[in-house]
Amino acid sequence: GSAQELLQEAQASSNYVKGNMRLDCENDIPVLYSTVVAPPTMKSPLLDCVQNKPDVETPLRKLRRERLKGRGGDVYISPRAKTTPKATDHFDLTAKVQEFLASARKVFLLLGDSGAGKSTFNRALEINLWDNYDKINGRIPLFIHLPTIKESERDLIAKRLKE
Q1: Mean pLDDT per 10-residue interval, the chain, length 163 residues
Q2: Where exactly are the structural domains of the chain?
Q3: Where would one find coiled-coil regions in this protein (predicted)?
Q4: How far apart are CA 114 and CA 111, in angstroms?
Protein backbone atom coordinates (compact mmCIF):
# COMPACT_ATOMS: atom_id res chain seq x y z
CA GLY A 1 0.00 0.00 0.00
CA SER A 2 1.61 3.19 1.23
CA ALA A 3 5.24 1.97 1.04
CA GLN A 4 4.69 1.09 -2.61
CA GLU A 5 3.22 4.55 -3.23
CA LEU A 6 6.26 6.16 -1.58
CA LEU A 7 8.59 4.13 -3.82
CA GLN A 8 6.64 5.19 -6.91
CA GLU A 9 6.77 8.82 -5.79
CA ALA A 10 10.53 8.53 -5.20
CA GLN A 11 10.98 7.01 -8.66
CA ALA A 12 9.05 9.86 -10.28
CA SER A 13 10.88 12.49 -8.24
CA SER A 14 14.03 14.19 -9.46
CA ASN A 15 15.13 14.52 -5.82
CA TYR A 16 18.56 12.87 -5.41
CA VAL A 17 17.93 11.59 -1.87
CA LYS A 18 14.54 10.11 -2.78
CA GLY A 19 16.03 8.48 -5.86
CA ASN A 20 18.83 6.87 -3.85
CA MET A 21 16.34 5.77 -1.21
CA ARG A 22 14.29 4.04 -3.90
CA LEU A 23 17.38 2.25 -5.29
CA ASP A 24 18.43 1.12 -1.82
CA CYS A 25 14.95 -0.27 -1.18
CA GLU A 26 14.86 -2.08 -4.53
CA ASN A 27 18.32 -3.59 -3.91
CA ASP A 28 17.36 -4.50 -0.32
CA ILE A 29 20.27 -2.52 1.13
CA PRO A 30 19.69 -1.63 4.81
CA VAL A 31 20.45 2.07 5.19
CA LEU A 32 19.37 4.55 7.83
CA TYR A 33 18.07 7.84 6.52
CA SER A 34 17.86 10.84 8.77
CA THR A 35 14.40 12.06 9.57
CA VAL A 36 15.52 15.31 11.16
CA VAL A 37 12.71 17.79 11.26
CA ALA A 38 13.44 21.49 11.54
CA PRO A 39 12.08 23.08 14.71
CA PRO A 40 8.93 25.15 14.28
CA THR A 41 9.55 28.77 13.39
CA MET A 42 6.65 30.10 15.45
CA LYS A 43 7.41 32.38 18.38
CA SER A 44 6.18 31.36 21.79
CA PRO A 45 5.96 33.95 24.58
CA LEU A 46 6.07 31.12 27.13
CA LEU A 47 9.25 29.65 25.60
CA ASP A 48 10.82 33.12 25.49
CA CYS A 49 9.99 33.58 29.18
CA VAL A 50 11.53 30.21 30.11
CA GLN A 51 14.65 31.05 28.09
CA ASN A 52 14.85 34.51 29.75
CA LYS A 53 14.47 36.29 26.42
CA PRO A 54 13.29 39.88 26.89
CA ASP A 55 9.79 40.70 25.66
CA VAL A 56 10.18 43.50 23.13
CA GLU A 57 6.87 43.13 21.33
CA THR A 58 4.72 44.32 24.26
CA PRO A 59 6.61 47.62 24.67
CA LEU A 60 6.64 48.01 20.88
CA ARG A 61 2.85 47.60 20.72
CA LYS A 62 2.56 50.26 23.46
CA LEU A 63 4.91 52.60 21.58
CA ARG A 64 2.94 52.03 18.37
CA ARG A 65 -0.38 52.83 20.09
CA GLU A 66 1.14 55.97 21.62
CA ARG A 67 2.57 57.20 18.31
CA LEU A 68 -0.62 56.47 16.34
CA LYS A 69 -2.97 57.81 19.06
CA GLY A 70 -2.46 61.45 18.16
CA ARG A 71 -3.08 61.03 14.47
CA GLY A 72 -6.23 62.72 13.36
CA GLY A 73 -8.24 62.73 10.21
CA ASP A 74 -6.13 65.48 8.68
CA VAL A 75 -5.64 65.45 4.95
CA TYR A 76 -2.02 64.80 4.05
CA ILE A 77 -0.61 65.26 0.57
CA SER A 78 2.74 63.63 -0.09
CA PRO A 79 5.27 66.27 -1.13
CA ARG A 80 7.10 66.42 -4.40
CA ALA A 81 10.85 66.95 -4.23
CA LYS A 82 13.92 67.71 -6.33
CA THR A 83 17.42 66.25 -6.20
CA THR A 84 18.98 69.75 -6.01
CA PRO A 85 17.52 73.23 -5.46
CA LYS A 86 18.19 74.14 -9.10
CA ALA A 87 16.79 70.91 -10.61
CA THR A 88 13.67 71.30 -12.73
CA ASP A 89 12.30 67.75 -12.50
CA HIS A 90 10.22 66.79 -9.45
CA PHE A 91 9.54 63.33 -8.00
CA ASP A 92 7.24 61.85 -5.36
CA LEU A 93 9.20 62.00 -2.09
CA THR A 94 7.31 59.15 -0.43
CA ALA A 95 8.10 56.76 -3.29
CA LYS A 96 11.76 57.79 -3.23
CA VAL A 97 12.00 57.22 0.55
CA GLN A 98 10.30 53.82 0.26
CA GLU A 99 12.83 52.90 -2.43
CA PHE A 100 15.64 54.07 -0.12
CA LEU A 101 14.29 52.02 2.82
CA ALA A 102 14.21 48.90 0.65
CA SER A 103 17.86 49.42 -0.33
CA ALA A 104 21.05 48.82 1.65
CA ARG A 105 21.90 52.53 1.71
CA LYS A 106 22.27 54.14 5.14
CA VAL A 107 21.85 57.92 4.69
CA PHE A 108 18.99 59.90 3.16
CA LEU A 109 19.36 63.66 3.55
CA LEU A 110 16.18 65.72 3.39
CA LEU A 111 16.76 69.47 3.08
CA GLY A 112 14.22 72.25 2.81
CA ASP A 113 13.31 75.74 3.94
CA SER A 114 11.69 76.32 7.29
CA GLY A 115 8.01 75.41 7.05
CA ALA A 116 8.47 73.40 3.84
CA GLY A 117 7.01 70.27 5.46
CA LYS A 118 10.05 68.18 6.42
CA SER A 119 8.78 67.36 9.92
CA THR A 120 5.23 66.82 8.70
CA PHE A 121 6.53 64.45 6.04
CA ASN A 122 8.60 62.52 8.58
CA ARG A 123 5.67 62.22 11.00
CA ALA A 124 3.49 60.91 8.16
CA LEU A 125 6.28 58.52 7.19
CA GLU A 126 6.47 57.23 10.77
CA ILE A 127 2.71 56.59 10.78
CA ASN A 128 2.97 54.79 7.44
CA LEU A 129 5.85 52.66 8.72
CA TRP A 130 3.92 51.77 11.89
CA ASP A 131 0.88 50.86 9.78
CA ASN A 132 3.10 48.48 7.82
CA TYR A 133 5.24 47.35 10.78
CA ASP A 134 6.56 43.84 10.36
CA LYS A 135 8.33 42.37 13.36
CA ILE A 136 10.10 39.88 11.08
CA ASN A 137 12.34 42.48 9.44
CA GLY A 138 13.22 44.03 12.79
CA ARG A 139 12.97 47.70 11.83
CA ILE A 140 11.27 49.91 14.39
CA PRO A 141 9.94 53.29 13.17
CA LEU A 142 11.13 56.01 15.51
CA PHE A 143 10.62 59.74 14.96
CA ILE A 144 12.92 61.97 17.02
CA HIS A 145 12.11 65.68 16.69
CA LEU A 146 15.62 67.15 16.98
CA PRO A 147 14.60 70.75 17.88
CA THR A 148 13.12 69.41 21.15
CA ILE A 149 16.51 68.05 22.23
CA LYS A 150 17.90 70.50 24.80
CA GLU A 151 21.40 69.10 25.04
CA SER A 152 23.63 66.87 23.01
CA GLU A 153 22.81 63.28 23.86
CA ARG A 154 25.05 60.34 23.14
CA ASP A 155 22.28 57.78 23.17
CA LEU A 156 19.25 59.51 21.64
CA ILE A 157 17.50 56.35 20.48
CA ALA A 158 17.75 54.55 23.82
CA LYS A 159 16.49 57.67 25.61
CA ARG A 160 13.52 58.00 23.23
CA LEU A 161 12.59 54.34 23.61
CA LYS A 162 12.68 54.64 27.42
CA GLU A 163 10.18 57.52 27.27
Answers
A1: 67 62 63 59 67 75 74 73 88 91 88 87 86 74 76 65 68
A2: 1-37, 53-162
A3: none
A4: 10
